[in-house]
Protein: 4-diphosphocytidyl-2-C-methyl-D-erythritol kinase
Amino acid sequence: MTERDETGPVRRGPPPPRVQLARAKVNLALHVTGRRADGYHLLDSLAVFPAIGDVLLAEPADQLDLAVEGPFGAELRDTPPEANLVLRAVRALADALAMPVPALHLRLTKRLPVASGIGGGSADAAAALRLVASHAGRDVPAEVLTRVAAALGADVPVCLAQAARRMRGIGDDLAPVPPLPPLGLVLVNPRQPVATPAVFKALQTRDNPPLPDLPEAFADARALTGYLAATRNDLEAPAQALCPAIGEVLEVLRAQDRVALARMSGSGATCFALCAPGDVNALTNDLQRAHPGWWVAGSPALQA
Ligand SMILES: C[C@@](CO)(OP(=O)(O)O)[C@H](O)COP(=O)(O)OP(=O)(O)OC[C@H]1O[C@@H](n2ccc(N)nc2=O)[C@H](O)[C@@H]1O
Ligand SMILES: Nc1ncnc2c1ncn2[C@@H]1O[C@H](COP(=O)(O)OP(=O)(O)O)[C@@H](O)[C@H]1O
Structure:
């Protein structure tokens, strides 16, 4: 239900959600098709959002603050809370809406490795924007959310809806994709951070062809893996040159009988393996056992 007061539509109804899952963004394919005058690269990418992510919880408080915990919380120990994308997102949206900074105690459980090519920080920022929008007490126009998201980072707009999208432009030009067939996905990171700017800088070729046209529908899993086989991640080679462990991860994944396709996501170092949904648990367990130093996480669907 929506009513109006002098400041715009006021929302009535159930209390705003307190918890957001900030899903990992996985680039199933990523072509670098050019470079803008400002140095940002033009991309053509197919991104999906499995049910693997950080968790952001909001509790009423006297003032805004953020606590970071979870298995990868320590990786952000050198990032002061004010520099964390969560607080930057909250302040940016409050500013754009000309509303007071919300008094919330935010708790971020960092379950995704940091600087790992699956957009954890961007997902956290988008989760914070969704939380603040739901606490704003009025409808927040989608254009405002998108504009604030884009100013926080190229990957943040796609993380707002956290639904499968084709990403073009610098990642901000978003289009829907055909429904995805049942496929499981396992993420593997060798626990070595990779800095995104360094990978783009190390690229040899910046004017690659775009993704092949997407079909109207993928008949089955084989149709999607067949489509993906004709695509690449153009950042894989430069990332691997900076972080040779990526090559080791890919070699291990590609040697598994259950794996239909393995590739790096984003600017690395996280790689993904696609397999039958029923094989996800066994593959995850096998990889964890054989490589206890790696981070391994599985999802029975590309998009929950
Ligand atoms: C490569 C991608 C693919 O989805 O994913 P990640 O590896 O970060 O997960 C993204 O484009 C990353 O997006 P995001 O991490 O939000 O980038 P930003 O913070 O805006 O930019 C970080 C730096 O990456 C480079 N950059 C980023 C995006 C882009 N389209 N071209 C670029 O050249 C620029 O050097 C920029 O200074
Ligand atoms: N909430 C956050 N989670 C992760 N990184 C963050 C966060 N806030 C700020 N950062 C900064 O953003 C950088 C990129 O992080 P991240 O989004 O994890 O990379 P990627 O998109 O490559 O997975 C980190 O090195 C860190 O300094």
In short: Residues 1-7 have pLDDT under 50 and may be disordered. The longest strand covers residues 26-35. The radius of gyration is 19 Å. The longest helix spans residues 120-135.
